[in-house]
């Protein structure tokens, strides 16, 4: 029998592709529109090189960090991802795997499992919220997360309802009825193992989002119902961000910050952490890779809040690169979803082990015994790699020009 262990995230992706129905797998790889951002998230990591030492390599590999008040075995967190019907145990399997490896869990408010079950599987769980519904409804959801024991809050606001992917819609049926069965049978029937996993548990893939209601067991909307509510909610202002932050007594992350000016506003709003992120390339296509924006954001606010990065992490070396450019930790999305699709909880543990080992190898070669010692000196950074977004006046000043001077030169 073939080994269930895989040696790279790329192999996890191949196995997930083999195992999952086309629509489910498609949702895991998709980026918005032309896919420029999702591609750049990977291309940018490939552009960064290492500057390894020959002797004096590190004997120790201390990867432990404290992020948002939580002691973690390594600088990696599970980024929240919405319901994907990848595996019947879904977020509970991911949370268990993360707990087994000393890693914190981010739970999406569009997840398929109730927060109470997820916190029971991993007490280091952060709850992620979108700006959906009224303030009262948001307070009720936060209150439930607090009662369940969430250790922190992640507010994700970088969503512009971008629509249309050049490679087709990765649609997943909302419920298994006759029409869905007719339409999806050709995809699903050729993936008997995926179907068998669900059949064994007696559950059918079901797209309700149980964390969108105030109490466990309250009738929950479907994913698409909740998405509709979200589309009708007015877009949040910076005052709303400050309000949301005030309602949570504990660590609070704003996820999806790409611009230096926004990072500063987030600090003013009182957040304790940000994630430099472009939503894994699922939001506004054409946004540069998050790793390109990281150095300027980390330089601007890294001494005031925990700066994390997500987008494009596929190996331990990528974690080392992000830390060297100023991140305290990274969050992963697709890498663990593919692990989950390939081999359930064990597949997610497998992915986390690969990241830890890869990070360890990078540390050894770079002569860094502790992750906190990684620095720009460890990297080969091609000219023009970085992108400073926002704060144009500062960027111009750094380049020795100012808009006024540029205008006068043009005149
Ligand atoms: C299938 C999928 C669903 C996602 N759902 C959410 C979500 O519900 N909330 C959220 O904050 N981010 C969501 N994200 C974004 C991830 O948290 C993360 O920012 C992104 O996946 C990181 O990029 P990576 O996949 O290259 O690691 C989702 C990403 C994917 C791929």
From TrEMBL:
Where glyoxylate binds, per the record, is at 165, 279
- The record's active-site residues are 279
Q: Where is the FMN hydroxy acid dehydrogenase domain?
A: 1-384
Q: Which residues bind FMN?
A: 80-82, 108, 128, 130, 156, 255, 277, 310-314, 333-334
Family matches, as InterPro entries: Aldolase_TIM, Alpha-hydoxy_acid_DH_FMN, FMN-dep_DH, FMN_HAD, MftD
Q: Which domain of life is it from?
A: Bacteria
Family in the record: Belongs to the FMN-dependent alpha-hydroxy acid dehydrogenase family.
What name does UniProt use for this protein? L-lactate dehydrogenase (Cytochrome)
Species in which this protein is naturally found? Blastococcus tunisiensis
């Amino acid at each position: 029998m073939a080994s269930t262990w895989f040696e790279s995230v790329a192999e996890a992706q191949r196995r997930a592709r083999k195992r999952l129905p086309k629509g489910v797998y498609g949702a895991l790889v998709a980026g918005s529109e032309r896919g420029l951002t999702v591609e750049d998230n990977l291309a940018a990591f490939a552009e960064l090189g290492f500057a390894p030492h020959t002797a004096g390599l590190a004997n120790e590999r201390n990867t432990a960090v404290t992020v948002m008040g939580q002691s973690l075995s390594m600088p990696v967190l599970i980024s929240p991802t919405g319901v994907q019907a990848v595996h019947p145990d879904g977020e509970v399997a991911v949370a268990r795997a993360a707990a087994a490896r000393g890693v914190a869990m981010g739970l999406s408010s569009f997840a398929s499992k109730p927060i109470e079950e997820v916190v029971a599987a991993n007490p280091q769980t952060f709850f992620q919220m979108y700006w959906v519904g009224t303030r009262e409804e948001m307070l009720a959801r936060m209150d439930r997360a607090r009662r369940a024991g969430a250790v922190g809050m992640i507010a994700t606001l970088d969503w512009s309802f971008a629509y249309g992917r050049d490679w087709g819609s990765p649609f997943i049926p909302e419920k298994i009825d006759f029409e869905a069965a007719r339409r999806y049978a050709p995809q699903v029937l050729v993936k008997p193992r995926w179907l068998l996993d669900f059949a064994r548990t007696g559950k059918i893939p079901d797209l309700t989002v149980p964390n969108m209601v105030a109490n466990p067991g309250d009738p929950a909307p479907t994913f698409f119902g909740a998405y509709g509510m979200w589309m009708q909610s007015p877009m949040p202002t910076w005052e709303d961000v400050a309000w949301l932050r005030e309602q949570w007594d504990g660590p609070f992350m704003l996820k999806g910050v790409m611009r230096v000016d926004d990072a500063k506003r987030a600090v003013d709003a009182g957040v304790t952490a940000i994630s430099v992120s472009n939503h894994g390339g699922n939001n506004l296509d054409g946004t540069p890779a998050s790793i390109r924006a990281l150095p300027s954001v980390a330089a601007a606010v890294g001494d005031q809040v925990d700066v994390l990065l997500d987008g494009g992490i596929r190996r331990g070396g990528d974690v080392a690169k992000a830390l060297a450019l100023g991140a305290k930790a990274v969050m992963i999305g697709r890498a663990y979803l593919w692990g989950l699709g390939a081999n359930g909880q064990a597949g997610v543990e497998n992915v986390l082990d690969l990241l830890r080992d890869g990070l360890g190898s990078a540390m050894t070669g770079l002569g860094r015994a502790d992750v906190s010692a990684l620095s720009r000196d460890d990297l080969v950074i091609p000219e023009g790699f970085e992108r400073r977004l926002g704060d144009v006046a500062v960027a111009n000043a750094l380049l020795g020009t100012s808009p006024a001077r540029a205008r006068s030169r043009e005149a």
